[in-house]
Specification:
The chain is an alpha/beta fold. It has 13 helices and 19 strands.
């Protein structure tokens, strides 16, 4: 389960709530640039890139000309396309075009940046930018590669009454043709955003709410349930992906045990609540916070035990999993959050 704020979503796949701004994908703008259907004309290849593509032909049918490398990506679109090609089980080579892009000037340079990444099949240009994703979503890329047709069944999605009401109202106040698009990447980072309907996407309607998915997101969203609640910190989604793996070793810890360990210096508490929430109910012992101690947290030794605290205990699970993915090996989430802490450890703490 993950909680996400307004029309945004967080990486993660266990229990959690929006609170870690570094792990939050803000995807709530209508008409985002990636919703354009019109293909961008590709620039002429330099002799250097042409030679590199030709040299790869004997060993790789597919070559992706991109801005950066898989390890040092410089644009989100390239990352999404790498995930897509990986999901299809395709072997491909990559070529870093960053140096050539930096040499362009003015409108010509901007035109070339918009046309990256580019996909080449057997040395011949196939598609660029969003068009690659559109071809894959529509099954055309599979045909070009001689692969079986993809599974384009709409996923089974359940919306709570509150979630359906919220989305219907948001879409009703948007431009005609607006839908709710759900993206879920290979690491189960998810994003809900309002965008124009796009050709080739997998479309469905749940309780009067038009939804659309890319090919990979549709399969990861099978069985997805979405809820919505309005709490003190603002609107919040709860998204449950039954197919998502469980990250270990993120473990629960009781408030009293966390208090004792922190006072003995055996544990550091990371309070992921917003500053306004912390002002309402303050811990009486030292802690780290995401807004003031992010650099300090990142520089901690991986073996330092951490315990994550939130309001009620749900979003701390997601944040603990995120810290584990960053390399921290001994991470806990405090059961019941500050509310349970106020009940069981320090009754002077205000409830909110």
């Amino acid at each position: 389960m993950i909680h996400v704020s307004a029309l945004s979503a967080n990486p993660g796949h266990g229990h959690g709530e929006a609170g870690d701004s570094a792990a939050t994908a803000l995807c709530d703008k209508v008409g985002a640039s990636r919703t354009k259907d019109a293909p961008v004309p590709h620039p002429k290849l330099s002799s250097s890139s042409r030679q590199r593509i030709d040299a790869l032909r004997p060993t790789h049918r597919l070559a992706l000309l991109m801005n950066g490398t898989p390890a040092t990506l410089r644009c989100g679109l390239s990352r999404g396309l790498l995930d897509l090609l990986d999901d299809m089980g395709l072997a491909y080579a990559h070529i870093d075009a960053t140096g050539e892009l930096q040499r362009g000037r003015g409108s010509e340079r901007r035109r070339e940046w918009l046309a990256i990444p580019q996909l080449y099949l057997d040395g011949e240009y196939l598609a660029s930018g969003d068009l690659i994703e559109q071809m894959a979503n529509a099954g055309k890329l599979h045909i070009a590669l001689g692969l079986p047709a993809p599974d384009r069944r709409p996923p089974e999605v359940t919306l709570s009454a509150a979630a359906a009401d919220f989305l219907r109202a948001a879409i009703g106040n948007s431009a005609p043709g607006t839908v709710a698009e759900i993206e879920v990447d290979a690491k189960w980072a998810s994003c809900v955003r309002l965008v124009p309907r796009r050709k080739g996407m997998i479309q469905t309607q749940v309780d009067g709410v038009p939804l659309q998915f890319g090919l990979s997101s549709a399969r990861r969203s099978d069985g997805l349930s979405i809820d919505w609640e309005d709490v003190d910190r603002g609107p919040s989604w709860t998204m449950r992906f039954p197919g998502a793996p469980v990250i270990e070793p993120v473990r629960p810890i009781a408030p009293a045990d966390a208090d004792a360990a922190a006072r003995e210096g055996r544990l550091l508490i990371v309070d992921i609540r917003h500053p306004q929430e912390r002002a309402l109910a303050q811990l009486s012992l030292p802690f780290l916070s995401l807004d003031e101690s992010r650099h300090e947290i990142r520089n901690l030794a991986p073996a330092v035990p951490l315990a994550v605290l939130c309001h009620r205990g749900d979003r701390s699970v997601h944040a603990a999993e995120h810290l584990h993915r960053l390399g921290h090996r001994d991470v806990y989430y405090i059961e019941g959050g500050i509310q349970a802490w106020a009940d069981l450890v320090d009754t002077t703490i205000a409830r909110y």
